[in-house]
Predict the structure.
Amino acid sequence: MSPIFLTQAINVVYGVSTLAVLVLGLAVIFGLLGVLNIAHGEFVMVGAYCAWVVTADGLPFLLAVPLALVICGLLGWVVERILIRPLYRRPFDTLVATWGLSLLLRKTAEAIFGRGFRDVAIPLPGTWHFFGVEYPTYRLVLIGFCIVVLAALFLWYGNSRTGMRIRAMVGNSDLAQAQGIGVKRLATGTFVVGTVLAGLGGVMVAPLVPVQPFMGLDYVLRAFFVLVVGGLGSVLGVLAGAGAIGGLDSIVSAAINGTYGYFTVLVVAILFLWLRPRGIFAHN
Amino acid sequence: MTEGKFTLTRRTLLGAAAGGAALSFAPGLIRHAAAASKEFRIGVFVPLSGPASLFGPGNRAAAELGADEANKKGGILGRQIKLYVADAGGPPADTAKSAVRMMLEDDIDLAIGSHDSATMEALVSTFKGKIPYVYTPVYQGDECAFNVYCLGETPAQQVGPGLKWLTEKKHAKTYYLIGDDYVWPRKTNEAAKKFIAEDGGKVIGEEYVPFGAPNKFEQSVTRIKGAKPDVVLITLVGADNVNFNRTFAGFGLDKSMTRFSLLLEAHTLEGIGAEASKDLYSCMDYFAEINTPDNEAFKKAYFAKFGAKAPLLSDIGVDTYAGINFAKALVDKVGSTNGHKCMKASEGLRFMTASGPAVMHGRQVTKTMYLADCNGGKFHIVDTFKNVKAGTVCKV
């Protein structure tokens, strides 16, 4: 295998794993609560600005992680209590409400930080050499981190008591409540987990991309494509969706060019909406 | 009698209606008539929304500074300049609507625009040459519509001197072209390929990414790594340009390849950052770092007016300052905004830009170009090229 081919192969793994984590927050909120959070990308943006604030003050990059957890968590909590809770089971209304929220967050970021591009220095600069391949160290670490996050969430959701309660709530909310499960608190918690995951994704990509108020738009579209392909309600679906969308995009981009990569993603998303609207794992 | 009365009634009715209509138009008429002798109205079209809104505040500030200075010298045709600013950052059709409104309601005498080419085309067909339209930013050349004047850098002015320098100083032979997929990058690369062939160089790769899509650049950078060009010629814009250059340096390619980016101004370099700007070059007609007495004077006036919160000084920003100065020079020379006369008078017209004087030929500008090394996230001027021609010559 030539080093260039191997590098492109790692690019595919990198594309899929980072995409899966960036989608996770949206998948949790949409899949478990049925809330279509259009402002998902803006929570990613908030996370990225956390990374900028921390590094611009000369503090270590890793401090951005707790900062993003706190800020995105608080934001998520307030948003769920004020905006989302009155609108559960009204999908179109939540869509419009979260769209408004995305505008508000974008404009707030613009008011605080300005419209300019912010530069977050890469915390682990340099490249790593192996098998004749030279790959950026930070991106390699990121791949590992993404796999850990995905595995942790997968295990937690499947095995923990909270995971079981959430599954009960998703299965039949009224019955769960009758069993003494605090459905409202659980829903708030689930929403907060979603926004925190988005913020974490933002911290993760901040050193790689231009940090700016509009950056969220780049993530929300791909995230929805992943959910269209993967279907709702399972970590496995997110992985499959990210694998299909991120993988196809990366492979076609590597083999031909970015235009065809993006084109393929659009075609696949349309085909799924048309022929398999419930995603890869749908039966019936 | 009855009939007469009826006629009378109808007449009264018609008369009243006409009078009412006249009355409702009257304030407009009076305002226009009074205004014609009072102020010289300029429509300024700059991006205030959307991704390009990064440039809007600077564009606006530079236009205001230009108008202030011109007004101190008696305005245009002895009338004080008044600016009407419109957003040109949305869809071209929306900007065209603002332009129609400005022509009908605000009765503008002249328009200045710093926005993308699609919006320019929409505005050209809206104004139809009825008022002079001064298009100020870097663009792809070849715009020759009636009563339109282009002040920005053309591909010939950027790639001509830039590639010559790279061939001589960096001994560049092989080139890889990457750009966003729309008219400016494609036209610029067309010009670049001509210059590269003339200099004995070779293009070994060319690719475009969809404009406005959420692009990633790992694959392109890996492909470029495999192709091993001496120089990567970049016609990506805005966030794509930042993203590409950060990825490029992240993969360590900055150690072995030179990059020449054609829309690299202060905002973009701020995003690329110090770490990712090694062996990266830009060729434009303005950088804040240009060391000329004219630029020093401009910067002094700019910061005196806007203070510490002044928008970042950028090539796309200060272009509207040149636009106002050009408008004053042109209309003062002609004595009116008549299209035929203005076009004739524009030939050989000298006017001031932020970095120094420039001359118009064939409704394009012959100008001084600067090549900057971007090492450490700062522009360092490494070469100056005087009297560079635009390549496009329009009928006057």
